[in-house]
Amino acid sequence: MFDQNARRESSWATPLRILTITLVLSAGFLYYYFGPTVDDLQGNIPQASVSDYPISLSIGGLNFSVPENFTQFPRARRGGERSSVALYAMMPELTPYTLENKEIFEGNLPDSPLIHFQIETYVSPLTEAQRIERIYLNSVVDTSGEAGPAGLTRFAFSEDTGYREDDLFLGRDENHQLVAFICMQALPGIPSPSCRRDTQLSDTISLKYRFKRVHLNNWRTIDADVHNLARSFLVSDNNNDEAAIQ
Predict the structure, then answer these.
(1) Is the separation of the CB atoms in 114 and 211 below 8 Å?
(2) Using CA atoms, how far apart are residues 83 and 120, in angstroms rounded to an integer?
(3) Per DSSP, which regions of 60-189 are E strands?
């Protein structure tokens, strides 16, 4: 029997439901393919900034003020206490990112003038001198080495080590301290090789930096400039003495 209390459904109800479902599915599709990822939201994707607004950071108990256009990742621009901060600058003046040098900062040419460096709380249990003696020199083919650029001595690593695609360069800085550069070889799969140095900025902070191998001749200037730039970010106050930085 026909239910006299039953309501007659509008002829628009079904098309509206279909339209709503279609819009929801389309929105989900667009967000999945074009929306921000978890890494985007967390600031883990490299993204340059032209702003020179100072970012206040605390790393390893020391306070730093870093202009935003030196930072490589958006997460660092939130400031506060952090375990590390990744920075970059352009030689020779170690200038930060600008619209004028955008192509250089976004490129990776073999002669790129960019220096990437990182300040972090992790400090190796071995000093640089200890790593040279206990690890690096125990992994080379000949401990005598050969003459390298700008007063450095080059050593070839043994094939049975994890450094077989690298070269070791040792030298002494202005304080006559032994320094080590691990440089990638120019192999078919590595058309733009870099050199890197891992050292300490203080008792609680390490400083790591890398640059293109073609600039190894200028290692003394690069080393001094990177250290000076890192020190320039230090904020001196009653609890944060610049003397803590080496």
Answers:
(1) yes
(2) 6
(3) 62-67, 80-81, 84-90, 114-120, 146-147, 153-156, 166-172, 178-184
pLDDT at 238: 41
Between CA 84 and CA 207 the distance in angstroms is 10
Distance (Å, whole) CA 129 – CA 123? 14
Cβ(79)–Cβ(59) below 8 Å? no
Nearest to 55 by CA among 38, 37, 73: 73
CA distance linking residue 226 with residue 207, whole number of Å: 9
By C-alpha distance, which of 69, 82, 79 is closest to 119? 82
Torsion (CA) 70, 73, 75, 79 in degrees, nearest 10: -10
- Which residue is it, tokens 């020199």? 137
Looking at residue 151, its amino acid is G
The confidence score (pLDDT) of residue 33 equals: 53
Per residue in 110-140, pLDDT (tens digit) is 999 999 999 999 878 899 999 999 999 999 9
Say if CB 204 and CB 61 are below 8 A apart.
yes
Taking phi over 0 as left and psi of -120 to 50 as alpha, with beta for the rest, 60 belongs to left
